[in-house]
């Protein structure tokens, strides 16, 4: 019943999607990168918005989303540069949290992202000025802890003056691995892929498929974390007692570090998805290494855990990429089962694609910022278990 109500609620708020603002990214990073925002081939649902009382002019929207069990709100705050002081930003963030809870008392969590108004380009553009996450369990203590600078679910951007340039996003699904190389290199890689898909397991520092003799699959999520979707995905997995590998974009982890700590606390596995979600084959060796190493270093600093696995954005890779990844201790992971949740094809389509491609040793590709995947997740896990499959992380699956 909860799932039916959730589907109905999402359908009521579905409208034609607006044009996505073009992201802006740091000048020192080469073109060819994009922060994924789930544009899809179908219009994404327009989410329910809260009306704050009294309204706060700088709060542009407070969106609410549910996974069928809990609801989470995300407040977007845009502050003009002339008002951008720590005290003013803290006040706005605190007001947004308290009034969101007042507007919808049943919320389980309120997350906030504060941006400089003049440079805001949407999620994936310039980093926020401040982010914070306030679960209901922390609400009573939150104002005092924020004032005393002891609240641990807050991030303040240490570098607001970095110059950034416009880069057009590449709307490309991670549908299948794409090897970039000479004809001879491509033939060798195709042979390696074919053998790996038949035999399974780690081969030459790559995983295309797990052990085909075992009825188990690995559950993976790309593009982590998103401030509205990620808490709902984590809650859904917790309820299902399921573990997954999350391939994390470094700059997202930088802006929302508390979510990365939540992930590890719940027993999930870290994966590297580059720092800026950049297509790697066209970059220099130094740039490829920096994209991977910066993400490894950040995730290890946040969690104390080593990063063992890497997934190339867009599935694009080359011999150079594999060599550099291996040199950093990373095993490159691909997938066999892509339900296409990123394109908003409909929950039933996601579920049918998943079931159709479920095989021993499969690696499932989902995204934490895709509404259809969020709704379908409990049923995907149920189908896998009913068919006798164990669902686990890449690390446990690849042992």
UniProtKB/TrEMBL annotation:
Q: Where is the NodB homology domain?
A: 215-392
Name this polypeptide is given: NodB homology domain-containing protein
**What keywords does the record list, in alphabetical order?**
Hydrolase, Metal-binding, Signal
Q: Name the species this protein comes from.
A: Deinococcus xinjiangensis
The reply to whether Metal-binding figures as a keyword in the UniProt entry is yes
Q: This protein's superkingdom?
A: Bacteria
**Pfam families named among the record's database cross-references:** Polysacc_deac_1
Q: Which InterPro entries match?
A: Glyco_hydro/deAcase_b/a-brl, NODB_dom, Polysacc_deacetylase_ArnD
The organism's taxonomy opens as: Bacteria, Thermotogati, Deinococcota, Deinococci, Deinococcales
- Signal peptide range equals 1-18
